[in-house]
Amino acid sequence: MSLSLHEASVPVFRHMLRALDGVLAKGEDHAKAQGYDPEVLLQARLFPDMFPLLKQAQIACDFAKGVSARLADVEVPSTPDEERSFAELRDRIARTLAFIEGLDPLLFEGAHEREIVLRPGTPKERRFEGRAYLLQYGLPQFFFHVTTAYALLRHNGVPVGKLDYMGAR
Fold first, then answer.
1. pLDDT mean over 71-85
2. 3 state DSSP class of 117
3. What is the pTM of this model?
């Protein structure tokens, strides 16, 4: 039996978003325990030209919902980037999880050959078949932002490790 694009996407996004939620909770707890404003962590960057932790987590959510929606051939929900706290960021993760978990696996049938067009009609337009979109674009982008969020917390002294990044099984 072959692996469907639903099986290769939604459960992966779900698992890693839950892990991201866990490391964000540890980040907030650490800031409070150390007596500094959690905003310091939310605005932390690995390098000046990189996005801060807050934006990394927002983008991870955007990729999880956007990739899932496009593969299911449904409209990508709009989510404005209005979060300013760990609680709001963790709520965004919860809303993203609710969306992707609510997608019927049957919607993903035929997704491997469905054409996905990003930024249509612009100079940055990109076209993919569904399988390539997930495996060569969506998952790598998602993992980049989840990993960077983890690295920002670890770099700033939050006691997280590989098991936290990998999440509970």
1. 96
2. strand
3. 0.95
Do residues 90 and 98 make contact, with C-beta atoms less than 8 angstroms apart?
no
Which string of DSSP letters, residue by residue, matches 125-161? -EEEEHHHIIIIIIHHHHHHHHHHHHHHHHHTT----
Q: Which residue did the predictor score with more confidence, 168 or 52? A: 52
Side chain identity, residue 107: L
Q: Using the structure block, give the residue that is written with the tokens 């990729």.
A: 63
Residue 79, both tokens: 């989510």
Domains and CATH numbers, the chain: 5-166 (1.20.120.450)
Strands of 44-165, DSSP E: 115-118, 126-129
Residue that has been written with the tokens 């690295």 in this structure = 151
β-pairing, 126-129 with 115-118? antiparallel
